[in-house]
Design goal:
With 170 residues, this protein is α+β, with helices and mostly antiparallel strands. The chain contains four helices and seven strands; from the N terminus they run αββββββαααβ. The chain has a single domain (12-168), classed as Phosphatase 2c, domain 1 (4-Layer Sandwich). Helix content is 26%, strand content 24%. The strands form two sheets. Strands 4-3-6-7 form a four-stranded antiparallel β-sheet.
Amino acid sequence: MAVKALPFDVPDRELIHCIYKNWLALLGSIAANDAVATSLIAWGKNTGETRLLQLGDGAVLYQANDGRGLLSGRSENTFGNETTGLGVSRKYSDWVCRTIWLTKPKQGLALMTDGISDDLEQMDTFVPEVIMKMRHMGRRYGKQWITNELESWPTPSHSDDKTIALIYRM
């Protein structure tokens, strides 16, 4: 919603400001620090140009024209649950921004909360494997498969939230 009225080439700082203002407006009477939110954003064009933005924990993994990559707001020196997010951060430098190109089949990205990203052992193969698995499924079966994978998460006693969004070229 926040980006619909903006041109795709809007500078990152202006885009982030618009997202933040929109989020504050949606909160209504809720205090921002009572609704802290990790933000994982992918905004793409039909040409394959895709803007990625992240604030807080979790990760954005991608396989694009320039190879595989990881976008993560967490530094090597932070501990679990030590993060920032909308409602806490007021600095542009807390955001991670990148533009990638998804122009070929089997390229894509996964936006995921830390309930998934913290448990991944093979980050560099996760996106290609999930794309290969899901690209031959219809929407209904793909949704059913990924739901089952999340509900049967292999880490014992793991109770952190697990949310994932996948975007890929057929």
